[in-house]
Amino acid sequence: MSAFTLLTLKTMSDGRGALTVMDGILPFPVVRSFWIYGADGYTRGGHRHHQTRQALVALSGSVMILMDDGKAREEITLSSPDQCLLVEPRDWHQMTFGPGSILLVFASRGYDKDDYIDTPYERL
């Protein structure tokens, strides 16, 4: 069992393709959205936040996210666009991108450099 929340998004599929929706599933209002691409093989992130909550969806490819909330540490791989990982402010997150990956991020707040905490949790 994971210490982190991974949502399965409602998806409808038929011979014409698939449609995935986010209607009413996120536990916060979305204020900012952005996507990361062209980062094949690179690691990004490496921070947590004071207040911002996020939801991550790998639209294409796979992204491995190292999550650490100070108590639990876990690697979660997003590899389907119907998976959504919730990232709480306390969650240290570091993403490693597979080939052709596109990561969509929904955030509860606008960008604020003072909201970032660049120090990881210390392990004994």
Automatic annotation (TrEMBL):
The GO terms this record gives for MF are: isomerase activity
Return the Gene3D superfamilies for the record: Jelly Rolls
Give residue ranges for domain Sugar 3,4-ketoisomerase QdtA cupin.
Answer: 5-118
Keyword Iron, does the record have it? no
Q: Which domain of life is it from?
A: Bacteria
Q: Does the keyword Isomerase apply?
A: yes
**Which UniProt keywords are listed?**
Isomerase
Query: Could you tell me what this protein is called?
Result: Mannose-6-phosphate isomerase-like protein (Cupin superfamily)
What is the originating organism of this protein?
Answer: Rhizobium leguminosarum
